[in-house]
Structures are given as structure tokens and as C-alpha cells.
């Protein structure tokens, strides 16, 4: 198992990738379920009336426009689902013992928060600012909603980084002896 040295001790690199993948997928699900479906603030293509790449505008207030946006929201959810499945597969392949201990570790959940923050930062910069295919919330103050989304991403990534650094070193593939069977 590869490890990286840090000031807080040795942190297993084996939890970084699956944690980030899980965070990207779960963060995407929160975005899609909360902002796309429940609040209906935006869909994948609701900003294409003023996008930067020439995608046709699909007005979400029409049946045909909502149908197209729903299809693209579904594609987005498939990508999120694949990220979660890949994260689980990588985690399962790397964690051969003490799975309960790994699921309870601050290291794993810190990396999940980092992944969620990275999702917000990449999706926010790319879709909201570079491509302009949608914004967090339409209207005159949309720039502030978009910047708030980026700020949330930065806070999630920073908080996750701090959380995982404060976690106890854990080699997910090593069995735990009787004397060290406490939860991390």
C-alpha cells in the first residue's frame, strides 16, 4: 500500500482515490437532486440561451425544453452513479480487512469531502463560467449564486483536507490485532 508522509503522520494513499471518486459522485447527486429536481433552480442546459459554446436553448418552461433538460440531467446522474460505483469498487479492492474501521475513519470521509468540493469547483468553473450552459440560480444575481457555489466547494475541499489530515493513520489492507481494535 502506497503511503504519503505528512505532518500528521503517515496517511494511506489507498483511501485518497476512492474517497475523492465517492465525493465527486455524491456531490453530483446532491447538486442534481437538490438543485435540478427538488428546487428546480436549473437543469443541465438552462443557461444555453447565453452559453459560450452554441448549444441550442431548451426552455425549461416548455414541455419539449423540460424533456431535453431532463434527458441531460439523466446523463449527468449516470456520470455521478458511475463515479460512486467506481469509488466503491476501488475502495473494495484496496480494503481487504477491517472494512468497518475504514468506513468510520476520518481519513476516508475527509477525502469524500475533498471530492465533493472538487466536484463543485470543477463543475462550477466549467459549466457556470467557462461554458455557461447553466447557472446555480437564474436571475440578475446569478453571479453571486455561482460564486457562492464555488466558495462552498472550496470550503468542502479545505474542510475535507483538514479532516483527513487529522485522522489516524490506517493501512486499509492490514488486519488489526486484538489490542488495536478501536474505531478510528
How is this fold's topology laid out?
Blueprint: E1 3-6, E2 9-12, H1 16-38, H2 63-94, H3 99-103, H4 106-130, H5 142-165
Antiparallel strand pairs: 1-2
Helix pairs in contact: 1-2, 1-4, 4-5
Report on this structure.
With 184 residues, the protein is mainly α. Helices cover 59% and strands 4% of the residues. It has five helices and two strands. The chain has helices spanning 16-38, 63-94, 99-103, 106-130, 142-165; strands at residues 3-6, 9-12. A two-stranded antiparallel sheet has the order 1-2.
Percent of residues in helical segments? Answer: 55-70%
The total count of helices amounts to 5
SS content category: mainly alpha
* Number of β-strand runs: 2
Shape: elongated
Detail the poorly predicted runs. 1-13, 178-184
Distance linking N and C termini: 19 Å
Reading the helices and strands in chain order gives: EEHHHHH
Radius of gyration: 19 Å
User: Mean of the pLDDT scores?
Assistant: 86
Strand fraction equals under 5%
Largest sheet geometry: 2 strands, antiparallel
Largest sheet: spatial strand order? 1-2
Q: What is the gist of this entry?
A:
The protein is mainly α and 184 residues long. It has five helices and two strands.
Please give a handful of descriptors for the protein shown.
184 residues; mainly alpha; 4% strand; disordered N terminus; elongated; two-stranded antiparallel sheet
Amino acid at each position: 500500500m502506497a503511503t504519503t508522509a505528512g505532518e500528521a503522520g503517515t496517511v494511506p494513499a489507498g483511501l485518497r482515490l476512492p474517497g475523492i471518486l465517492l465525493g465527486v459522485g455524491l456531490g453530483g447527486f446532491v447538486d442534481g437532486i437538490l438543485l435540478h429536481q427538488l428546487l428546480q433552480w436549473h437543469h443541465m442546459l438552462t443557461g444555453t440561451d447565453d452559453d459560450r459554446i452554441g448549444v441550442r436553448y431548451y426552455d425549461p418552461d416548455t414541455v419539449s425544453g423540460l424533456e431535453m433538460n431532463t434527458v441531460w440531467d439523466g446523463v449527468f446522474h449516470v456520470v455521478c452513479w458511475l463515479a460512486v460505483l467506481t469509488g466503491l469498487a476501488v475502495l473494495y479492492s484496496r480494503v481487504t480487512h477491517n472494512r468497518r474501521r475504514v468506513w468510520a475513519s476520518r481519513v476516508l470521509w475527509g477525502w469524500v469531502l475533498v471530492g465533493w468540493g472538487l466536484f463543485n469547483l470543477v463543475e462550477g468553473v466549467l459549466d457556470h463560467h467557462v461554458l455557461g450552459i447553466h447557472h446555480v440560480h437564474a436571475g440578475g444575481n446569478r453571479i453571486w449564486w455561482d460564486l457562492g457555489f464555488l466558495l462552498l466547494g472550496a470550503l468542502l475541499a479545505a474542510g475535507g483536507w483538514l479532516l483527513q489530515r487529522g485522522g489516524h493513520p490506517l493501512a486499509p489492507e492490514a488486519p488489526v490485532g486484538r489490542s488495536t481494535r478501536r474505531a478510528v
